[in-house]
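hiii so um. not sure if this is the right channel but i have a protein structure encoded as tokens and i wanna go backwards to a sequence. like what aa goes where. can anyone help
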């Protein structure tokens, strides 16, 4: 069979356009495809919700790929070991309460879990604003191609509607900052110094709905609340993603 370039191009454009049109209204928009966003997307998708992951970079995985200072290993503490197991991520006990896993395997398996749960990925796409109308809820995300941002091009964005947005953008807490910047009563305190034990023990308390329709997870949750950072220990990221998913589910299902 002779391959036809036009058919190949049509297949890509038509399929992705249909998908994008379908996701103009979704249940949950997860912003950021790092560990917390991936865990939340996988767990929400598994519950049958329509979940889109919007990731500004080409690759999914955020800060997990690099492990600690480019040693491709992550550490996960006892409390989150069950999530490694749930996602099929193999780990090795290093010391009492400490498990080590491959960062490459971790990203791959989390991504695969989110895909298998039906979450759709919109990569190379940046969230640059939020939609908040009279009801005072975050009800959509304003998006543009990352290439537009990188090129400094003056191109107007498009908007995706969502019932809930999850800010999983990491240290910068981008979505929360967008809301805060417009003086809508949300304060982003910014993250503190390295203090792994404290940061990990408090992240679940910081994983919450910080504005109607907006839930923060992962490092974004710590950054909003002025909490410390924790380096390459990832249990809190997975547990926080799980909590973000449970908050959304509770709100949507009562
Ligand atoms: O930073 P990131 O991995 O977030 P996380 O899930 O995990 C943090 C850890 O990786 C690590 C740590 C662990 O102890 O401290 O840093 O909290 O992933 C955030 C993702 O969000 C994307 C970004 O490219 C990354 O993949 N992102 C950031 N801004 C935007 C965005 C944006 N405006 N639109 C879309 N995606």
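sure thing!! here u go:
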């Amino acid at each position: 069979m002779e391959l036809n370039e036009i058919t190949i191009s049509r297949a890509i454009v038509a399929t992705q356009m249909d998908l994008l049109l379908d996701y103009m209204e979704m249940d949950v928009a997860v912003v950021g495809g790092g560990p917390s966003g991936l865990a939340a997307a996988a767990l929400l998708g598994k519950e049958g919700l329509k979940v889109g992951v919007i990731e500004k970079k080409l690759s999914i995985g955020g800060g997990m790929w690099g492990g600690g200072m480019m040693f491709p290993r992550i550490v996960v503490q006892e409390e989150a070991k069950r999530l490694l197991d749930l996602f099929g991520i193999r780990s090795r006990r290093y010391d009492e309460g400490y498990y080590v896993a491959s960062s490459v395997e971790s990203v791959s398996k989390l991504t695969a879990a989110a895909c298998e749960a039906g979450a759709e990925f919109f990569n190379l796409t940046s969230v640059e604003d939020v939609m908040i109308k009279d009801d005072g809820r975050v009800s959509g995300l304003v998006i543009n191609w990352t290439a537009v941002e990188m090129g400094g091009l003056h191109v107007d964005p498009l908007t995706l509607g969502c019932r809930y947005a999850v800010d999983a953008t990491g240290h910068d807490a981008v979505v929360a900052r967008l809301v805060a910047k417009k003086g809508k009563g949300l304060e982003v305190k910014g993250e503190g110094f390295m203090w792994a034990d404290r940061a990990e023990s408090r992240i679940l308390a910081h994983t919450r709905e910080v504005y109607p329709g907006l839930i923060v997870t992962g490092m974004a949750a710590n950054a909003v609340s002025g909490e410390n950072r924790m380096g390459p220990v990832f249990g809190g990221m997975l547990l926080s993603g799980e909590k973000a998913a449970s908050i959304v589910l509770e709100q949507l299902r009562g």
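oh and Residues 25 and 161 are 5 Å apart (CA to CA).
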